[in-house]
Amino acid sequence: ETGVTQSPTHLIKTRGQQVTLRCSSQSGHNTVSWYQQALGQGPQFIFQYYREEENGRGNFPPRFSGLQFPNYSSELNVNALELDDSALYLCASSPVSESGETQYFGPGTRLLVL
Amino acid sequence: KQEVTQIPAALSVPEGENLVLNCSFTDSAIYNLQWFRQDPGKGLTSLLLIQSSQREQTSGRLNASLDKSSGRSTLYIAASQPGDSATYLCAVKGGSYIPTFGRGTSLIVHP
Lengths: 114, 111
Description:
Oligomer: heterodimer
Helix content of chain A: under 10%
Largest interface: A-B, 27 and 25 residues
Shape of chain A: globular
Number of strands of chain A: 11
């Protein structure tokens, strides 16, 4: 059973640019969630996708968007990058979108915005 | 809005001590509470998941309890080891299915 993988591991962008982060969910998992974790903070929920549809969103502006593909891989896109977007971005997958399932996290992508 | 607080923020102990990490939450209408471990710059590893109908879960040297009415959970680590050094996070999932994380407890176990 493969785990959750993310790419790239590190990324440097400048303010105003756009970025795409990728996640490959654990085999058999049809739900993926994305989180932003600033230094010294807990992860903040960005959004969740279930069967290619967004079914939950945290307090993030529309310039944060996502996609989930039929093979359950997913992307997080961030437009018009701001300095405060610098953070560790984590994706997590689970078998279903219901409340009771454990989430399995990837290693994260560390984004630095200059 | 759910708020999750973890105390203490940091902890440094000698090897072999038994530890208690605390997590409190403001809204007791939860579905589950999950404890995670995070090594520096890495993703999260799930340690224990407690459903709202449960009072505790155990895995090896770890035991987590849940008291929904008082909005508290504790993670008990028995006989701590240097390999336990990490940040421990709790996350509460409520009615919106959106998990809310605390800021974590940074643990150092020195030999």
